[in-house]
Design goal:
Elements (H helix, E strand, L loop, with lengths): L17 E6 L13 E7 L5 E7 L4 E9 L4 E9 L5 E8 L2 E2 L1 E6 L5 E8 L2 E8 L3 E6 L2 E7 L9 E5 L4 E7 L6 E8 L5 E10 L2 E8 L2 E10 L2 E9 L2 E8 L6 E7 L2 E11 L4 E8 L2 E11 L2 E11 L5
Antiparallel strand pairs: 1-2, 2-3, 3-4, 4-5, 5-6, 6-7, 6-8, 8-9, 9-10, 10-11, 11-12, 12-13, 13-14, 14-15, 15-16, 16-17, 17-18, 18-19, 19-20, 20-21, 21-22, 22-23, 23-24, 24-25
Length: 312
């Protein structure tokens, strides 16, 4: 679908007369020799111009009516075609804005989805984005579906909108397995119960909630691989298990009043790709080891590490 601004063109007032304008691949006016498209204009009456756009090989690309040639304001039904001459989209306009039924077609010319507009706003049907579909009923968004992940480690979601509560169905990156379901407040999108997934770069955090508080297991992934998991009771962390990147074994630390108390913990920085290892004894860090990634291997940086002398 293309809107083109024409700098100048010539037409007569006769209903049977026409003029021809040539365009390059960016839809700028050009010569016949450099053209990728051309347009034929017909004057229908004092208020409408019948416009036909063609691929340079003569196949119809678009047909419809303009009420203003300079501003290219669509009026009525506008139809677009592929370079094979197959219909790709048919939409209705009023004074340059979508109004009425819009239909998008598949390559076999069967209907893919339809959308009804009223004065430029979606009333019924589907709106397609880069990697999502939105479903509307009577002017309200009722469902949002992701069907293609922006990267390999971002989980897909389907959100069903309600009056007071929304439901999100979380899928794996391939979209073929349900991970969990979350219930949200419709007004402010706060999680109430179930699973919430948040993503930051290649880090994905899966958190379970009960009565708007973290409850149970929270898992942290990097590039789809488990880094750590925390256990929450009534929104307070009580235990954390993390993966030792050197041995791939699981280490564990318990918490007291939400703070690390006894055990071993690994923390990962995804920006600079380093690990910090902490060993706690009764709330005090007695060992900190800093590991940096060098030529694909984790190397201990002694300058950023230390060991605290403690009495037995």
């Amino acid at each position: 679908m293309l809107l083109i601004t024409l700098s100048c063109f010539f037409f007569t007032q006769s209903a049977s007369s026409q003029s021809k304008i040539y365009f390059d691949e960016e839809w700028n006016t050009t010569t016949k020799e450099e053209a990728h498209f051309y347009r034929i204009l017909y004057k229908k009456d004092d208020s409408l111009y019948h416009v036909k756009d063609f691929y340079i090989n003569g196949i119809l690309q678009m047909e419809g009516f303009f009420s203003d040639l300079d501003k290219e304001i669509f009026e009525g039904e506008i139809v677009w075609y592929t370079d094979e001459g197959k219909i790709s989209e048919k939409s209705n306009y009023k004074k340059g804005v979508l109004h009425g039924l819009s239909v998008v077609y598949l390559e076999n010319e069967k209907i893919d989805y339809t959308t009804k507009y009223i004065d430029g706003r979606v009333y019924e049907g589907v709106v397609l984005g880069g990697y999502y579909k939105q479903f509307f009923e009577k002017g309200e968004l009722v469902k949002y579906v992701e069907f293609e992940a922006p990267n390999d480690f971002r989980n897909l979601q389907t959100r069903v909108y309600g009056v007071e509560r929304d439901t999100i169905y979380w899928m794996n990156n391939q979209g073929d397995k349900l991970i969990g379901v979350g219930i949200y407040d419709s007004k402010n999108s706060n999680i109430i119960d179930g699973l919430n997934i948040s993503n930051s770069l290649l880090i994905s955090v899966h958190t379970n909630y009960k009565d708007s508080k973290r409850e149970g297991v929270q898992k942290v992934f990097y590039e789809g691989k488990l880094l750590s998991e925390q256990i929450f009771l009534d929104n307070i962390i009580v235990l954390e298990r993390s993966i030792n990147p050197l041995t791939l074994e699981t280490v564990e630390i318990n918490f007291k009043d939400g703070e690390p108390y006894n055990g071993q913990l690994f923390q990962f920085n995804q920006i600079y790709e380093y690990y910090n290892e902490f060993i706690y004894k009764e709330g005090i860090v007695i060992i900190k080891n800093h590991y940096e990634l060098v030529d694909g291997k984790l190397i201990l940086n002694l300058e950023k590490s230390y060991k605290k002398q403690v009495e037995d």
